[in-house]
Design brief:
12 helices, alpha/beta, Nucleotidyltransferase, domain 5, Arc Repressor Mutant, subunit A, binds zinc ion, 5-stranded mixed sheet
Length: about 375
C-alpha cells in the first residue's frame, strides 16, 4: 500500500481495515470484514497486502466454539513512524511515535522566550527534528504532525496566528517539506487532543453526551474546546483569560486570568515543571479558579460534562474529587490519553492524514 497515494476505494478500505485492527483486539479476517461491513474476499486481499508490507501480522489462533480456530490479526506498531511536534506556549516537544501514537523517543526544548528570538527557535525545532529522525530508518517515517495552541488553516498547511508566537501566516508544512524533506500537517492542539481521544480510545463513551462537552487542555496554558456529537468547535484562547480571581498577573497583562492562576508556570513559578509533578501543591484556591471558569462556560453552553486533558490528564484522584465538589451537578472526567497526551495528539494528526484517515472517513459518512 502506498500510504500517501490518491484516495481510491481500495486506499480507503485499507485505511478502514487498519483503523479497525487498531481499535479492536484479536480480530480475524472474517470478523474484520463483519465489523466493517465489507466483502470478505476484498478484506482478505487487503489484509494479505498489509501483511506482505509488514504493517499487519498474524498473532496466532484464537479460541472458537465451533472447532475452527481463525487467526487473529494485529498492527505491527513499529512498521512505520511519524514525527510528533507539539509547539506549546513554554516548551516544544519533538517525538518519534509508532503507528499506535506511542512515543519511542522525545525531547523538549523551550519555545520562544524574552531572550530567545523566533529565528533561533525555528532553527532549534529543525535541529531537534533532525536528531529525532536519526533514530529511525527515515524511509519508514511517514511525515510530521504539528500541534500548536493557535489558529491553523483548514488544510493544515499554515499557522495563521498563535497567541504566544509572533507568527503570522507561517507556511509550516512547506517549511518542513523544504528543510526536512518530509511532509507535514498542522492542527490546533486542543482540537488535536479531541481527535486523538476519539480515534485512539474508540469504543469508550468519554466524549459521548447530549450536551456539549467542555474539553480542557490544561498545562502551561489552558485551552478549551466544545465537543458536540461529532463536532468540535470554539478552540480559542479566550478560556485562558477568563477572569477567575482577584490575583495573579497574566502574560496578557491583566490580573486574575485563569492561566495566571492554574497553569503549570503559574503554579511552579518556572516554565520547566510538568503539571504532573504539581498536583500535591495544588490548593483549593487553584481548583476554585478552574471551577469558576467551568461555571462561566456552563452558563453559556449548558454543558454538564467536563474532560480534563493535556498535561491535566495526570490530575490525581484527590484533585479530581475536590474539583468535582466545587462543580456541583457536573460530571468531571480525566482524559484517557495519559501524561503524554500532547505528544500522542500531535502524532495522531499525522496518523490520521497518512494511515487511518479517520477524520476523512467521518466526513464521508456525514455526507451520506
Ligand atoms: Zn490573561
Amino acid at each position: 500500500m502506498k500510504l500517501s497515494q490518491p484516495k481510491s476505494a481500495r486506499t480507503i478500505n485499507t485505511a478502514r481495515v487498519l483503523g479497525c485492527l487498531r481499535t479492536h483486539d484479536n480480530l480475524s479476517k472474517a470478523e474484520t470484514a463483519r465489523v466493517l461491513d465489507l466483502n470478505k474476499v476484498s478484506t482478505g486481499e487487503i489484509v494479505d497486502d498489509l501483511i506482505s508490507e509488514g504493517l499487519v501480522k498474524e498473532t496466532g489462533k484464537m479460541e472458537s466454539t465451533n472447532g475452527r480456530r481463525p487467526i487473529c490479526l494485529s498492527i505491527v506498531s513499529d512498521a512505520r513512524y511519524v514525527l510528533s511536534v507539539d509547539i506549546g506556549s513554554k516548551n516544544t516537544t519533538v517525538a518519534l511515535c509508532n503507528l499506535l501514537s506511542e512515543p519511542l523517543h522525545f525531547e523538549r526544548i523551550p519555545t520562544v522566550t524574552k531572550d530567545r528570538k523566533v529565528e533561533e527557535f525555528c532553527v532549534e525545532i529543525i535541529k531537534s527534528c533532525i536528531r529525532v529522525i536519526r533514530l529511525a530508518d527515515k524511509t519508514k517515517i511517514l511525515g510530521a504532525g504539528i500541534s500548536v495552541g493557535g489558529k491553523v488553516s483548514e488544510d493544515g498547511r499554515t499557522i495563521i496566528s498563535c497567541p504566544y508566537l509572533p507568527w503570522d501566516n507561517i507556511p509550516i508544512a512547506e517549511a518542513f517539506e523544504q528543510v526536512l524533506k518530509m511532509q507535514a500537517v498542522a492542527r490546533n492542539s486542543t482540537y488535536a487532543l479531541v481527535d486523538a481521544e476519539r480515534y485512539a480510545s474508540y469504543g469508550t463513551d468519554l466524549l459521548v453526551s447530549n450536551d456539549p462537552i467542555i474539553y480542557i487542555e490544561w498545562g502551561n496554558s489552558v485551552n478549551m474546546a466544545l465537543v458536540c456529537a461529532d463536532r468540535v468547535f470554539g478552540a480559542g484562547n479566550g478560556f485562558a483569560h477568563l477572569k477567575v480571581s482577584q490575583t495573579g498577573l497574566c502574560s496578557c497583562g491583566q490580573i486574575g486570568c485563569l492561566e495566571a492562576n492554574v497553569s503549570a508556570w503559574a503554579l511552579s513559578g518556572n516554565t520547566e515543571t510538568h503539571l504532573k509533578d504539581l498536583w500535591t501543591k495544588v490548593e483549593k484556591e487553584t481548583l476554585q479558579c478552574m471551577a469558576n471558569a467551568i461555571a462561566m462556560t456552563v452558563q453559556i453552553t449548558g454543558s454538564s460534562k467536563v474532560v480534563i486533558s493535556g498535561e491535566g490528564a495526570t490530575i490525581t484522584d484527590y484533585c479530581l474529587r475536590e474539583l468535582q465538589k466545587l462543580c456541583p451537578g457536573m460530571e468531571i472526567t480525566r482524559s484517557n490519553l495519559g501524561e503524554k497526551a500532547n505528544i500522542m495528539a500531535a502524532a495522531e494528526i499525522a496518523l490520521d492524514k497518512w494511515v487511518y484517515m479517520t477524520s476523512m472517513l467521518e466526513k464521508m459518512r456525514s455526507w451520506l
